[in-house]
Amino acid sequence: MNYKANIRPAWVVLVLLMLFTLAFALVKTSDDTPAAKIQPETEKPLKVDLTKFKNAQENETCLKCHGQSKYTYENPESKKTVTKRMYSELVMNRDVFYVSNHREFKCTDCHSEDYATFPHAGNLRMETKANCIDCHGGDEKYAKFKFEQIEAEFQASVHSEKHSEDFTCWMCHDAHTYKINARTNEVLKETIVYDNMICLNCHGDFKNYQLLTTKLKPNLLKKHEWLPNQASHFTHVRCIECHAKNEDTLVVAHHVVSKSQAVRKCESCHSKNSILYASLYKYQVSEKIQKEGVLKGLLTGEATSIGPDKSNTLNIISLIIFGLTILVIMIHAALRIKK
Ligand code: HEC
Ligand code: HEC
Ligand code: HEC
Ligand code: HEC
Ligand code: HEC
Ligand code: HEC
Ligand code: HEC
User: Fold this and answer.
1) What is the pLDDT of residues 273-285, one digit of tens each?
2) Beta-strand (E) ranges in the chain?
3) What whole-number distance in Å separates Cα of residue 214 and Cα of residue 93?
4) Ligand 3 first shell, C-beta below 6 A
5) How far apart are CA 196 and CA 239, in angstroms?
6) Of 35 and 241, more confident
7) Rounded to the nearest 10 degrees, how much is the dihedral formed by the CA atoms of 209, 215, 217, 222?
């Protein structure tokens, strides 16, 4: 019996597999190459293809200064080119802006055209900015978001009651990064982290918080000491699950209530009638019901256990392991048959 001839099919399969992996890796990396046409002065290569956005070229006139940590201009008196450090709060990330809700906008749709001149005129600082409702109110196209109802809930919230004028929708919906998640993102965990970061950006940031109040920022970890596995809870549920009054008609509750009304009982979530079905999983569950019928929707997936983990990475890894197992079995069988 010739041993070499027996082992050949296995080698062929292995070499093919390696070639396939290599080709896949190459295709993956060529996806990441930045757009060549517009070459902004960035420190890191861009992930976003700026040529896809009709206003990108014009926005570069602002982003050449506001898009990185330094900017240059010609001093009109000395005629010298000066390089200065940009204030970190005024630096914007293109990759994040161009996936946000308002990615198709020009900077000057929301900001005065007068910003085109530098140094910017001092009175521009006083410019009033349009609010969400100014553009979205009473518009059929956005009816599904229920802007009017959100506005009313927000007006009744602790934030609005205690700070009225200074606390606007923009405080939670960063003008340059806000992107809808809860109704579009399939990965529940990402939505939880995204939504919680909105709150933590202020409640976890001394400087941002102190812009609004002279009261010292409470230590969140201490204030939630009664909750076991804090880290796990903060990544598996949203702050608003415990802190906002949930309404059936809204995908995301906006009525943040005072701390005395926050959910504290474990059974509120850790039970068959978990409030999470009506809040965190509301969108997923209602979509499922629409697609598969009531019974199925409630008896499978989201409805049977709290904290579904729809991790794509895990799915892919298990697929790869499954594929490899089949392959090993095939090679083994091939060798046996030859023998
Ligand atoms: C030459 C660099 C440069 C360019 C170009 C530039 N900016 Fe600025 N911008 C700055 C600097 C520096 C500041 C902070 C100092 C100040 O407020 O003048 C600033 C401040 C701002 C502020 C904050 C003002 C405040 O304090 O409230 C806004 C908003 C702004 N710029 C928008 C724009 C827009 C929109 C464009 C494009 C139309 C633009 N900028 C173009 C350098 C630039
Ligand atoms: C959808 C409207 C909108 C668009 C589009 C927009 N901005 Fe803004 N921008 C705002 C609002 C509102 C604020 C004030 C945020 C606040 O008060 O917290 C702001 C604030 C700023 C500031 C001050 C720093 C800060 O974050 O508070 C700068 C600088 C700025 N914008 C630059 C730009 C540039 C450059 C672009 C274009 C790439 C742009 N903006 C596009 C609405 C917008
Ligand atoms: C200057 C007018 C203007 C302001 C102010 C404004 N928007 Fe928009 N918004 C628009 C327009 C126009 C679109 C549609 C953009 C598109 O289709 O590319 C949009 C899109 C959206 C979308 C839909 C995204 C999608 O993919 O369906 C949401 C949600 C949204 N805005 C929320 C807000 C919120 C929240 C605020 C306030 C924090 C706000 N907008 C402020 C004009 C505005
Ligand atoms: C205390 C923080 C906070 C404030 C203030 C706030 N929002 Fe929100 N909003 C959120 C969070 C968190 C989400 C969930 C984001 C996601 O996952 O899509 C959200 C989502 C939304 C959505 C998308 C809802 C959907 O059906 O998909 C809209 C529209 C919206 N907010 C409008 C507003 C308007 C208008 C205001 C001001 C009247 C406002 N928000 C003020 C935190 C806030
Ligand atoms: C499991 C429910 C639950 C979750 C999740 C939760 N909280 Fe709380 N939180 C509470 C309760 C209950 C209190 C009241 C504690 C007290 O009065 O001693 C509280 C208190 C607070 C307070 C008031 C602190 C003070 O004493 O002034 C803030 C602010 C707060 N939480 C923010 C958050 C933020 C931000 C998140 C998300 C990262 C979050 N919470 C997640 C239940 C929760
Ligand atoms: C821009 C900053 C900012 C953001 C963003 C923000 N908050 Fe607050 N929040 C405050 C300030 C300031 C107070 C203190 C109000 C006071 O007592 O003066 C507060 C108070 C609270 C309180 C305590 C109310 C009480 O009874 O004393 C809760 C609960 C709370 N926030 C929850 C949230 C949640 C949940 C989110 C996210 C959906 C959020 N906050 C986002 C600034 C913020
Ligand atoms: C707002 C809803 C909510 C409330 C209230 C709540 N939990 Fe949880 N809890 C969750 C979710 C969601 C998970 C994650 C479940 C999973 O991993 O599948 C969790 C996980 C846990 C875990 C497991 C942690 C881990 O790391 O695996 C324990 C223990 C726990 N909770 C105890 C409690 C106790 C005790 C209380 C009351 C003091 C409480 N929970 C209140 C939603 C909640």
Assistant:
1) 888 988 888 777 7
2) 70-74, 81-85, 244-245, 255-256
3) 30
4) 101-102, 104, 109-110, 130, 132, 134-136, 145, 169-170, 173, 180
5) 6
6) 241
7) -160
Closest ligand to 85 CA?
A: 1
Tokens 């409630």 — which residue?
298
**Three-class secondary structure of residue 229 per DSSP:** coil
Protein residue with its CA nearest to atom 37 in ligand 4: 169
State the amino acid at position 192 in one-letter form. I
Taking the CA of 154 as reference, the closest ligand is 4
pLDDT one-digit tens code per residue, 138-183: 999 999 999 999 999 999 999 999 887 889 999 999 999 999 999 8
Element at 141 (helix H, strand E): none
Asked whether 243 lines ligand 6 (CB < 6 A), one says yes
pLDDT tens digit sequence for 100-148: 999 999 999 999 999 999 999 999 999 999 999 999 999 999 999 999 9
Higher pLDDT, 301 or 122: 122
What's the mean per-residue pLDDT of the chain? Answer: 82
Cα distances from 119 to residues 70, 83, 86, 124, 279, in angstroms, run 15, 14, 13, 11, 48
Query: Is the CB of 150 within 6 Å of ligand 7?
Result: no
How many A from CA of 174 to the centre of ligand 2? 8
- Residues 284, 251 contacting (CB under 8 angstroms): no
Rounded Cα distance between 68 and 41, Å, is 8
Which amino acid is residue 245, in one-letter code?
A: K
